[in-house]
């Protein structure tokens, strides 16, 4: 059975036996406007795919048959494609773009998008529906992602994730045995760069008749996250929501640039497929940094000599720059409620409270490696039972369990970070990511020509002129920020 369908079936069976529901309104709030004799239809837009889409649709069906039927609410979940496609659809609807769909009642939303839609006057302050007691149920750091202007609550957390270092342990053990590197070398970005360089040279030496044909060691799934978190590790909030500006710290950005541009140019790092897990499966990478929610997609085998070769899985904590503070991303879209009629707003909130309650949220979150959002979920018997089941399951399930052990430690006990957005910060993130990936691609193309000319690594680095390329990257960022009238400061 397909693993994603299997996961959906397991979740369906878990949801069927769960009957606990949250009430629609909290104590002290005004009388409900919902009427079971005249049910309201709630449209929910989301970006989930695969097992998560199945899990959401299953939960919606269960809601509609239980508390939704009792209170008079029918939820219709609509997949709008990728997060980027969803955000465009929401923005177009909020702005009334010609031929856009009507605004949904409820939609998945990252903080910067929630802030943007709020500034258009289109979403509810959920403090009107979630009392202080309601809000105390959630992990504080998760709930705070949706708070703005002191205390305006624009979104409710659904699930969260962090990022980890994923490694093909089979390839790593072969390399480590031959070269003497160990897992401690994978704890810092500087150590990873040295490992990646040695890995390239080690694989290159296996075919001495062909120069410069080594294999790349590592990739980065989200370059935007890497830039933001690396800055934070080095003491800089590059997206400074408090002061509504971008902070361009030259020292921090240079370290980030040298690692990524240098590694990508020389082939020590790479990004080939749509996702880095695809590159692992193809044998093009041995490791990558990616979301804990992607654990179920890490391959259990790779293509080798036209055959499937099984591989072991290793998950490690998110790397840190030397002398920096160990910090990893905290991420995951919440859900926002659009301003509409009192009935539709209350119906959307009713679903949110039900869906984020432990009974529903735990099985949904644990489909692939997301983290539940209620504080008490982590001491819930259901959570620990599910985790034990994963630990004794098939290879993919064991991979997910291994990720939970690290992700929980990062989220609950270590330093995690989510930048506080401001008007235009979504564009800042896009500029940072695209500008670095574009210049790194240029560096890789230039290096390919220099390699063909028989140059050594040192000669290539001299020709690349890293300092000049860094200045070029920084100037590109500044030009784009200025064109969008986004404030920035240099340090």
TrEMBL record:
SUPFAM superfamilies: Periplasmic binding protein-like II. It is found in: Cell envelope. It comes from the Bacteria. Residues 1-22 form the signal peptide. Gene3D superfamilies: Periplasmic binding protein-like II (3.40.190.10). Its main location: other. GO terms for cellular component: cell envelope. InterPro entries: Bact_solute-bd_prot1, SBP. Keywords: Signal, Transport. Belongs to the bacterial solute-binding protein 1 family. This is Uncharacterized protein.
């Amino acid at each position: 059975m397909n693993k994603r369908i299997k996961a959906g079936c397991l979740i369906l069976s878990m949801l069927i036996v769960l009957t606990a529901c949250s009430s629609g309104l909290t104590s002290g709030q005004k009388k409900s406007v919902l009427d079971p004799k005249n049910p309201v239809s709630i449209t929910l837009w989301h970006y989930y795919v695969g097992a998560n889409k199945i899990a959401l649709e299953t939960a919606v069906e269960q809601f509609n048959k239980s508390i939704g039927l009792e209170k008079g609410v029918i939820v219709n979940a609509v997949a709008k494609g990728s997060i980027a496609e969803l955000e465009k659809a929401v923005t177009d609807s909020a702005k009334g773009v010609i031929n856009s769909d009507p605004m949904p009642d409820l939609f998945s939303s990252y903080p910067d998008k929630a802030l943007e839609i709020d500034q258009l006057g289109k979403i509810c302050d959920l403090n009107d529906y979630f009392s202080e007691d309601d809000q105390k149920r959630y992990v504080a750091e998760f709930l705070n992602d949706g708070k703005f202007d002191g205390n305006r609550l624009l979104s409710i957390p659904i699930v969260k994730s962090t990022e980890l270092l994923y490694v093909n342990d089979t390839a790593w053990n072969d390399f480590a045995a031959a070269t003497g590197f160990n897992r401690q070398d994978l704890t810092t970005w500087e150590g990873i760069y040295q490992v990646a360089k040695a890995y390239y040279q080690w694989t290159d030496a296996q075919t001495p008749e062909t120069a410069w044909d080594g294999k790349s060691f590592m990739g980065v799934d989200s370059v935007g996250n890497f830039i933001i978190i690396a800055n934070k590790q080095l003491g800089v909030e590059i997206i400074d929501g408090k002061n509504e500006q971008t902070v361009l710290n030259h020292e921090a950005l240079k370290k980030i640039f040298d690692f990524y541009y240098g590694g990508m140019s020389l082939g020590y790092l790479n990004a080939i497929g749509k996702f880095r897990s695809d590159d692992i499966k193809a044998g093009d990478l041995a490791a990558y940094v990616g979301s804990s929610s992607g654990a179920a997609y890490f391959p259990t085998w790779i293509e080798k000599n036209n055959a499937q070769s099984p591989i072991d899985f290793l998950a490690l904590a998110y790397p840190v720059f030397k002398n920096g503070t160990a910090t990893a991303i905290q991420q995951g879209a919440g859900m926002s409620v659009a301003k509409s009629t009192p009935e539709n707003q209350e119906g959307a909130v009713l679903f949110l409270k039900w869906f984020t309650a432990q009974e529903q949220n735990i099985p949904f979150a644990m489909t692939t490696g997301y983290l539940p959002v209620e504080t008490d979920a982590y001491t819930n018997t259901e959570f620990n039972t599910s985790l034990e089941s994963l630990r004794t399951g098939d290879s993919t399930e064991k991979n997910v369990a291994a990720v939970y052990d690290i992700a929980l430690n990062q989220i609950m006990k270590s330093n995690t970070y989510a930048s506080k957005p401001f008007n235009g910060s979504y564009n800042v993130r896009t500029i940072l990511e695209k500008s670095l990936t574009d210049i790194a691609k240029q560096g890789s193309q230039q290096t390919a020509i220099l390699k063909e000319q028989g140059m050594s690594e040192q000669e290539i680095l001299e020709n690349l002129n890293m300092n000049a390329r860094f200045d070029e990257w920084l100037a590109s960022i500044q030009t784009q920020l200025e064109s969008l009238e986004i404030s920035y400061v240099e340090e």
